[in-house]
Amino acid sequence: MHTTSGVTGFEYQPRPSSQLFAYYSGAYFSRNIVADGEDTIGFGHPGSPDTANRQIQEATGGYIHTFFKNPNYGTLIVLGQYAYVTRAPWYRAPSDTSDRHTHMVFGGVRFTLP
Questions:
Q1: Is 107 helix (H, G, I), strand (E, B) or coil?
Q2: pLDDT tens for each residue of the chain, 114 residues long
Q3: Nearest alpha-carbon partner for 30 in 72, 65, 2, 4
Q4: What's the CA gap between 13 and 69, in Å, rounded?
């Protein structure tokens, strides 16, 4: 099976204690099917389950803030991230018109020991 994927993005540090980031990634998965008499078998054949993805794409962005940084005591940061993910299966039932996407929000507090 042939696949293609890529990631691009940027990070920007407006102040020593702040960082903004944004990334985009995508992956494509080709079909790999064989005709076996009356049926087709393999990845992405007509009638395959909707878990056989043709493509997946994600856009994400976020903010990281360093509240405290000391070489003797450690570092305390807080981060927030938003991500939008979409996928397209090779096959969908004719009655299925729903989009395959989700929104995700992540947050975290990280303390790093020296």
A1: strand
A2: 789 999 999 999 999 999 999 999 999 999 888 887 778 788 888 777 778 888 999 999 999 999 999 999 999 999 999 999 999 888 887 777 667 899 999 999 999 998
A3: 2
A4: 16
Contacts with 97 (C-beta within 8 Å, 6 or more apart), sequence order: none
**How far apart, in whole angstroms, are the C-alpha atoms of residue 37 and residue 4?**
30
Give me the residue label for tokens 């299966």: 89
Contact assessment for residue 24 and residue 9, using Cβ atoms and an 8 Å cutoff: yes
What's the full length of the chain, in residues? 114
Identify which of 47, 36, 38, 40 has the alpha carbon closest to the alpha carbon of residue 90. Answer: 47
How many C-beta atoms lie closer than 10 Å to residue 64's C-beta? 18
The parent domain of residue 9 ranges over 3-112
Split into its structural domains, the chain has a count of: 1
Residue 8 to residues 35, 53, 95: CA-CA distances in angstroms? 38, 21, 35
CA 23 to chain centroid = 9
